[in-house]
């Protein structure tokens, strides 16, 4: 295979695929897209109803957190896609841009040029290929849940992707003609014929090649052998856990941490700090009637609300589920449905660190779950809002009784106990290669790694402060928009 390129993109996930599509549109630019996982051409990836079977499978990196004191010492699962399309191949297919205020806040934090008015045309452009849409029909249980949300006082929101999130409504989904429309299928499959685009699946990058303070390529393992691939520019799109991991292995990160592992420090930057993830728990309700699998999407609609009246934007997302996932098991075979109270703006911040100077040793990922007491209070409020929705008359034909946490968990203290025993990160990690202009930033607004030429990061790790909805859309945006920074 060729070893010299103009641009190497590490990671064929949501951001990497979008970036590869745009960069390779210039026939004079030689682009290499590298992915550690294999083909996404398989039934369990293509069929949205099989999403739950992908978590913990061969297309999942199967990461787990360090033991979390705020979550009863549990090591929490953190699925990440190891397959063409990355996590867009194993996620719940929800496509939400987030609030306009999210992107304006990025700009205030130093991400110049990333405000809502600037990014909205990029969303429009990428969505012309991705084609996120509402399902033609909705499950009757989901329809009842949405009506219950209206009865509980949440206003109707006909389109969350206008930049205004408040209220209850349907989600757009990355599903086209009944099949998952992941990033690879949307952005890369249609252009695989381009002679200037090389896609290398089942190829794991272990290090960035540096000459002084310039990136000149990557070291990669493929088919049992190691090879150095060279490029004028390298872009890390390996995600919030693995982009910082590769930087750290290459001597770019907190100097004290790298020195402790015997890694020479090339650039002392706060790589791996600022880890943020949304949090969720579950309210599981036994049903009065069977729940058909007529529509197998994990969630079709949700409510966006505020944990306190003075919250500047909605910080709670409460999706409507049908088949419980990542929930405590209940006795018996009764049909159940679920509603997920979620916190989208936790104050807690975690870290990604290396355990050893070895690409085969898993990283140390501390998501700092419920570390800040304000997060626990907000989650208690989310549980109460979700329960109020479930109690409405629209769900009378469906609702039997709450099984988890159960009616005994009524006080704030009891709900907090339930949260510590059940809360999980929502698989929306961001922030570990923060974009900005100060000393707390890893990359500049044009996504260049500070102090290193020829190296950028383009994925959810650059988000300075998380978005108030599922992060897949924002990740695609970052990859799409990154192309504008190349000459």
Write a compact overview of the structure shown.
Helix content is 24%, strand content 22%. It has helices at residues 14-23, 43-46, 51-54, 100-108, 116-130, 140-151, 183-188, 239-249, 255-260, 373-390, 412-422, 472-482; strands at 4-10, 31-34, 63-64, 77-78, 94-95, 167-170, 172-173, 175-176, 179-180, 197-200, 203-211, 214-222, 225-236, 252-253, 267-268, 279-280, 283-287, 299-305, 316-321, 336-339, 342-343, 351-353, 364-366, 399-404, 424-425, 455-457.
Explained architecture:
The chain is of the alpha+beta class. The chain has 12 helices and 26 strands. It has helices at residues 14-23, 43-46, 51-54, 100-108, 116-130, 140-151, 183-188, 239-249, 255-260, 373-390, 412-422, 472-482, and strands at residues 4-10, 31-34, 63-64, 77-78, 94-95, 167-170, 172-173, 175-176, 179-180, 197-200, 203-211, 214-222, 225-236, 252-253, 267-268, 279-280, 283-287, 299-305, 316-321, 336-339, 342-343, 351-353, 364-366, 399-404, 424-425, 455-457. Strands 6, 16, 17, 18, 19, 20, 21, 24 and 25 form a 9-stranded antiparallel beta sheet that branches. Strand 1, helix 1 and strand 2 (31-34) form a beta-alpha-beta unit. Helix 1 (14-23) packs parallel to helix 12 (472-482) and helix 5 (116-130) crosses helix 12. The longest helix is centred in the last third of the chain and has 18 residues, at 373-390. It is globular and about 65 Å long. The model has no long low-confidence stretch (mean pLDDT 96).
């Amino acid at each position: 295979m060729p070893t010299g390129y103009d641009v190497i993109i590490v990671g064929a996930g949501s951001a990497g695929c979008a970036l590869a599509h745009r960069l390779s549109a210039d026939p004079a630019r030689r682009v290499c897209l590298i992915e550690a996982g294999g083909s996404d051409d398989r039934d369990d990836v293509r069929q949205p109803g099989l999403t739950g079977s992908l978590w913990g499978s061969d297309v999942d990196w199967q990461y787990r957190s360090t033991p979390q004191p705020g979550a009863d010492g549990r090591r929490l699962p953190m699925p990440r896609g190891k397959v063409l399309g990355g996590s867009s191949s194993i996620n719940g297919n929800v496509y939400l841009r987030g609030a306009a205020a999210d992107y304006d806040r990025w700009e205030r934090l130093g991400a110049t040029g990333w405000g809502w008015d600037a990014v909205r045309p990029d969303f429009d452009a990428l969505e012309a290929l991705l084609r996120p849409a509402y399902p033609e029909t909705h499950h009757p249980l989901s329809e009842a849940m949405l009506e219950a949300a209206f009865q509980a006082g949440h206003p109707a929101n006909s389109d969350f992707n206008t930049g205004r999130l408040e209220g209850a409504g349907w989600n757009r989904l990355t599903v086209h003609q009944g099949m998952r429309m992941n990033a690879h299928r949307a952005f890369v499959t249609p252009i695989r014929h381009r002679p200037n685009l090389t896609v290398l699946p089942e190829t794991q990058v272990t290090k960035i090649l540096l000459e002084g303070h310039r990136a000149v390529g990557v070291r990669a393992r493929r088919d049992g052998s190691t090879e150095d691939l060279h490029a004028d520019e390298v872009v890390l799109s390996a995600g919030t856990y693995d982009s910082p991991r590769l930087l750290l292995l290459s001597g770019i990160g907190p100097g004290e941490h790298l020195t402790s592992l015997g890694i020479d420090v090339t650039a002392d930057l706060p790589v791996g700090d600022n880890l943020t993830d949304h949090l969720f728990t579950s309210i599981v309700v036994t049903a009065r009637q069977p729940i058909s699998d007529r529509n197998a999407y994990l969630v079709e609609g949700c409510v966006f609300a505020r944990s306190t009246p003075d919250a500047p934007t909605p910080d709670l997302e409460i999706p409507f589920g049908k088949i419980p996932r990542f929930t405590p098991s209940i006795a018996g075979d009764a049909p159940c449905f679920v509603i997920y109270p979620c916190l989208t703006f936790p104050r807690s911040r975690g870290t990604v660190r290396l355990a050893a100077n070895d690409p085969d040793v898993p990283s140390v990922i501390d998501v700092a779950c419920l570390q800040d007491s304000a997060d626990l209070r907000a989650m208690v409020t989310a549980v109460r809002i979700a329960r109020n929705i479930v109690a409405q008359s629209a769900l009378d034909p469906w609702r039997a009784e709450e099984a988890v946490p159960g009616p005994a968990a009524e006080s704030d203290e009891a709900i907090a106990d339930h949260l510590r025993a059940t809360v999980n990160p929502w698989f929306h990690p961001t922030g570990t290669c923060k974009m900005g202009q100060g000393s707390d930033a890893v990359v500049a607004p044009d996504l260049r790694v500070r102090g290193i030429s020829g190296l950028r990061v383009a994925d959810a790790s650059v988000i300075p402060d998380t978005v108030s909805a599922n992060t897949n859309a924002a990740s695609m945006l970052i990859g799409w928009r990154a192309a504008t920074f190349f000459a």
